[in-house]
Structure of GNAT family N-acetyltransferase:
Amino acid sequence: MPSERAEVQVRPGVEGDLKALTAIYNHYVRETAITFDTAIFSPEERRPWLLSHPEDGPHRLMVATDADTQEILGYATSSPYRPKPAYATSVETSVYVAPDAGRRGIGTLLYGALFEALAGEDVHRAYAGIAQPNEPSTRLHERFGFQYVGTYREVGRKFGRYWDVAWFEKQL
């Protein structure tokens, strides 16, 4: 019986993914206000970020790959919400999809895997900041049970204008 392969596979991120993950992130740095970073990164500059997301614990990195080519199609992370110790059971989550891989359900697959991985961890709340406007990201977060809690008005300046960030939270 022939085995059927899934079109997309999701797995924890590894150091060998660093170049591709950096390229995806740099697209959003250069082309969008989705991230408020304003200068692109080299893979070596992003290495501490990658290493801060081990395969276990509350701070994860999940990577989606094409099942046939192993091309990285996107990634999702849970990262520290704030550095002070009392925030340890809260995480900030994010999803980045390769520019040519949108509208394929990659973000949904990534978030599904991320929240499944976090289910056994001591994490109480997840937060997501979404630069506005970004209706696709808002829909994705609401699909996963995030609820709108407020907007920081004109909190970031990029491309010569100010951007609002809507904040969402999810109980875990």
